[in-house]
Amino acid sequence: MAAAVTEGVVSFGVQKLWELLSRESERLQGVDEQVAGLKRHTRTLQSLLNDAYAKKYESERVRNLLEDVKDIVDDAEDIIESFLLKEIKEKGIKKRVKRLSCFLVDRRRFATDIEGITERISEVIARMQNFGIIQKIDGGRSLSLQERQRVQREFRQTFPKSSEKGFLDSNTKLELGNLVNLETLWHFPTKQGNVTDLLGMTRLRTLSVFSDRNCTSETLQSSLRELRNLETFYLVDRNLATHGGAYQVDFVGDFIHLRDLTLFVHMPRFPDQSRFPPNLANISLSDCRIEEDPLPILEKLLHLKSAELSYHAFVGRRMVCSKGGFPQLCELILELDELEEWVVEEGSMPCLRTLTIDCCKKLKEVPDGLKYITSLKKLVITGMKGWKKKLVPGGESYYKVQHIPEVEFEYCDDDE
């Protein structure tokens, strides 16, 4: 392994890669999805670096991770710059048929290369998270929901393969019962650990659990019943891909101080609002495959500030935000493959400031009720082909968003 890299070199490399992807987006048309995926991973990587630097002096494995980041970024830049340079040279070829054939082959090869780089970054992100490295932005404060929205993708894209590789042998057993003064525990694996060890950790404020088939909802509930001080809770089901069973998460209502909740579990039935902590401020749902519209429940959580529903969190076709619902919601992120219609009634989400609609491929249009949300300051629309034409000044739906100071479009041009 080479000598330890400096913080500046790694940060500069990651930032340079981000700027390269942003600057050359038009020249990278035709591989939009691959480039968008790489940008998302790069953004997540950037937010993890500050905490990684703080921990590199404590762990050789973290120092090695930073070396890996540098190597990956260098390879990514070489691939992108080589592709762009070759594209420039090929503009002089006169035989159009031959040029088109080469163009298509090169694009496919480039797309495959980008996917390979993305997978390598995804693996590094998963390894960082397993080492307890958390996402931070400048100044050391925690990321807002929108700034950390991509972390959920990193879990599902790398999981379960990367989560075990290189960390714990499948036969290793953890004994953590004596850690009664612990306040933070990341990525507790029920496969290698005894979930009943959590019973004595009554001081825990932050907990993330990676659950396997050996841990039922009932076992988990009984093992967490004494954790009255929890403020942040992540629950990730390692068997999401098989959807072998449904989780019951009603027990989260017992965490009366809980403010941040993230669920990556299969739960077709969404709990009633009475089963959620009274002061819950942030919720993120992914791959839950909820069958009935969860918004009528979520909108009754009076202190909810931010919500994210992504990647099959809800598998129905229609959602409704009712009048008077979400009285304090400031940030909402939707990335739902099956959503076709979203109704926003006048008087809903009166405090909403940031809305992100990300790759809701079947959603036909922006809700008409968006025009009533005068508090909205920023709208981000990603991967929605045909929407940009409708929502820019002069477009047929511009009246719905004309009051919003900042409207951003990413990969939405349907003429490309």
Mean pLDDT: 77
Q: Could you tell me the number of beta strands?
A: 12
The level of helicity is 25-40%
Alpha carbon gap, first and last residue:
44 Å
Number of helices: 9
Class from helix and strand fractions: alpha/beta
* Radius of gyration from the alpha-carbon trace, in angstroms: 23 Å
Largest sheet: 10 strands, parallel
The largest beta-sheet arranges its strands as: 1-2-3-4-5-6-8-10-11-12
Uncertain residue segments:
1-6, 89-105, 137-167
Q: What are the secondary-structure elements, in order, as H or E?
A: HHHHHHEEHEEEHEEEEEEHE
Query: Which strand-content bin applies to the residues?
Result: 5-15%
Based on Cα principal axes, name the global outline.
globular
GO molecular function: nucleotide binding
InterPro entries: LRR_dom_sf (IPR032675), LRR_R13L4/SHOC2-like (IPR055414), RX-like_CC (IPR038005), Rx_N (IPR041118)
Pfam family, one: LRR_14
Domain Disease resistance R13L4/SHOC-2-like LRR: 169-381
Secondary-structure blueprint:
Blueprint: H1 7-23, H2 32-56, H3 60-90, H4 96-130, H5 151-158, H6 161-164, E1 184-189, E2 206-211, H7 217-224, E3 232-237, E4 260-264, E5 282-286, H8 295-298, E6 306-310, E7 318-321, E8 331-335, E9 341-344, E10 354-358, E11 378-382, H9 387-391, E12 406-410
Parallel strand pairs: 1-2, 2-3, 3-4, 4-5, 5-6, 6-8, 7-9, 8-10, 10-11, 11-12
Keywords: Nucleotide-binding, Plant defense, Repeat
InterPro entries: LRR_dom_sf, LRR_R13L4/SHOC2-like, RX-like_CC, Rx_N
Domain Disease resistance N-terminal: 9-98
